[in-house]
Design goal:
Elements: H1 2-13, H2 15-48, H3 55-66, H4 79-120, E1 133-135, H5 140-151, E2 156-160, H6 167-170, E3 175-177, H7 183-188, E4 196-199, H8 203-216, E5 222-225, H9 230-238, E6 242-244, H10 246-257, E7 266-271, E8 274-280, H11 291-294, H12 296-300, E9 303-309, E10 312-315, E11 327-332, H13 334-344, E12 354-357, H14 361-372, E13 377-381, E14 393-395, H15 401-407, E15 414-417, H16 422-435, E16 440-445, H17 451-457, E17 461-464, H18 465-477, E18 482-486, E19 489-495, H19 505-508, H20 510-514, E20 517-523, E21 526-529, E22 542-548, H21 549-558
Parallel strand pairs: 1-2, 1-4, 2-3, 4-5, 5-6, 12-13, 12-15, 13-14, 15-16, 16-17
Antiparallel strand pairs: 7-8, 8-11, 9-10, 9-11, 18-19, 19-22, 20-21, 20-22
Helix pairs in contact: 1-4, 2-3, 2-4, 3-4, 5-18, 8-9, 10-14
């Protein structure tokens, strides 16, 4: 009874629901009046035929005819009576069999179901809740973030403020109902005990959320995303501790992948003195040899973590063959990386501009990053208002051959596809791969499910906007010991499990048991690479590993006490 009352109160609380009930009541009143009029006319026509019935019989006859039951025990004999029966029958079909079900479902049943859902969704968190992440929007980035939070066992809550978002409750997200611009919502969400507040809406809404949270709690960290550089200062003034420009970050990451003929390796992360870099091997003496033959660890001290081959990452196996399209992922100190570059790389000049398709935030950020590296580029854009520099921009549709040829598709060694439409990105990847089979193609994916499709279409690298944003937020939340090497491939750091302490690398057999590869060991603030498989892990400290999402989950599941921050 209490649950039913809560549903009724919620149903009547919303003005649209009250209006719906008024509409339903008006329809029912109209139907009652119509039935009464038909019953009165029934008596007059029966008297015309010389027969007399009670008022109950009149209502009985009207309802049986309008509902098409038509028992046949009472019938008219005159043409007037038969004509009246047809009118009653047709109006009954329209009102009772067509309008009534529609109006009942639309104006009562559907709101009632939504009220049931809303009654199930909580409007406050338990008083003992603490250390949780409060998320204010559900989008591609926060969906990926929620998966990461589950993986690392962080409690979280997703705030929803309207009935249309209640599907989130049925999608097995932990939700709480409340208006984002109401300070009471954050009080009930226990914001004073929260780990962080994450807001990923538009810049104006993020500023409103931050200011509202600050009315309730001054110390809780607030992280917001910003679409425009000018919004960063405003969001910080509103109370945000961290502001992420995901478009800028994505552009820089894509530019880093655009190695072209650049001989140097590019750093993708750092753990203390240990650098993680990627380097191309095109036109070097490394091509045609296996890792065993090269013995890079013995020669220069670097530890090869894996190899990229046309968008597929392979763990560093001794028999792995290096080809012209191989990109090495290595770990080592700055001196070791420098020794590798000096010994194996010879600078090759870049003659053709890099082709960028799409002049949105990501495309422009990639262009700026390339310019900082001294690389030339051309941006293809079909929206005239986005053309900034006629010398660098090509106006036209990238699906047209003449436009791509003007951009230099026949000569370029790298094509970057940055549109926000995954379908278009897949189409352009296939097209560019056919036009330029030897070029390196880097594509952006907005939905994670399209990453594999883009690889199959011919992309060498695919970077997911959602995964990159989720990893960046996770880093801020507390796991600054995780680095996304590429889509689905992470370098992460955890405490040395008790089961592995004091055992040699060979005895641990981490790669075969979990799929992860050991990169280095952090002890007493110093990070060292793992060069000797007989070396034993210390009893205390942290280890750095590389692996895809599945391997990382297996490791954290196998050594559960290290899965937490």
């Amino acid at each position: 009874m209490k649950f039913l009352l809560a549903q009724l109160l919620y149903l009547l609380r919303e003005r649209p629901n009250r209006m719906n009930l008024v509409i339903l009541a008006r329809f029912l009143l109209t139907l009652i009046i119509l039935i009464t009029i038909y019953s009165i006319l029934f008596h007059y026509i029966m008297e015309y035929e010389g027969r007399y019935y009670s008022w109950v019989t009149g209502f009985y006859w009207t309802l049986t005819v309008m509902t098409t039951l038509g028992f046949g025990d009472i019938t008219f004999q005159s043409d007037l009576g038969k004509l009246f029966s047809m009118v009653v029958l047709l109006s009954g079909v329209f009102f009772l069999l067509v309008l009534l079900p529609f109006i009942f479902v639309e104006f009562f049943y559907a709101p009632w179901i939504r009220a049931q859902q809303a009654a199930r969704a909580p409007r406050q968190l338990p008083k003992k809740m603490s250390g949780h992440v409060i998320i204010t929007h559900l989008d591609n980035v926060t969906r990926a973030l929620i998966e990461k939070l589950k993986q690392y066992q962080y409690p979280y809550v997703l705030l929803i403020n309207d009935l249309s978002a209640l599907a989130s409750h049925d999608a097995e997200y932990r939700v709480m109902i409340g208006a984002l611009d109401n300070p009471k919502t954050y009080q009930l969400a226990r914001v004073d005990k929260a780990l962080i507040v994450v807001t990923t809406g538009n810049d104006q809404l993020n500023a409103n959320v931050a200011a509202t949270v600050r009315e309730v709690c001054e110390h809780v960290p607030i992280l917001a995303t910003a679409n425009f550089e000018a919004s960063v200062d405003i969001l910080e003034l509103a109370g945000c501790n961290h502001v992420l420009q995901l478009g800028e970050m994505m552009g820089q990451a894509i530019a880093r992948r655009a190695v072209g003929d650049e001989p140097h390796g590019y750093p993708i992360g750092q753990f203390g003195e240990l650098l993680i870099v990627e380097t191309t091997v095109r036109e070097t003496q490394l091509v045609g040899h296996t890792l065993r033959e090269l013995a890079l660890r013995e020669q220069v001290g670097v530890n090869v973590l894996g190899l990229w081959q046309r968008g597929v990452f392979h763990a560093a196996q001794p028999e792995a063959l290096i080809t012209e399209s191989t990109i090495l992922v290595m770990a080592g100190t700055q001196a070791q990386i420098g020794a590798f570059r000096q010994r194996f790389h010879k600078p090759q000049p870049i003659h053709a501009p890099i082709v960028i398709i799409g002049a949105g935030r990501v495309g422009r950020a990639a262009a700026r990053a390339l310019a900082e590296r001294g690389l030339d580029y051309r941006i293809v854009e079909k929206a005239p208002e986005r053309i900034r520099d006629p010398q660098k921009y090509i106006l036209g549709d990238a699906a047209e051959l003449e436009v791509l040829e003007r951009a230099g598709i026949r000569e370029t060694t790298v094509v970057i596809i940055t549109t926000h439409d995954d379908d278009l990105n897949i189409y352009l990847t296939i097209y560019c791969r056919r036009l330029r089979p030897e070029a390196q193609i880097i594509s952006r994916a907005n939905l994670e499910r399209n990453v594999a499709t883009l690889h199959r279409a011919g992309a060498d690298f695919v970077l997911s906007y959602a995964s990159m944003g989720a990893n960046a937020i996770i880093n801020v939340i507390g796991r600054d010991n995780i680095l996304m090497v590429a889509e689905g491939l992470d370098i992460f750091e955890v405490e040395i499990p008790r089961e592995l302490a004091g055992r040699s690398i060979t005895e641990c057999d981490i790669r075969n048991r979990t799929g992860c590869t050991l990169v280095g060991v952090r002890q007493n603030g110093t990070v060292s690479t793992v060069s000797d498989p007989t070396e034993r892990l210390p009893s205390q400290g942290r280890i750095i590993l590389i692996g895809d999402s599945a391997a990382e989950k297996r490791f954290l599941k196998l050594y559960k006490h290290n899965g937490k921050r």
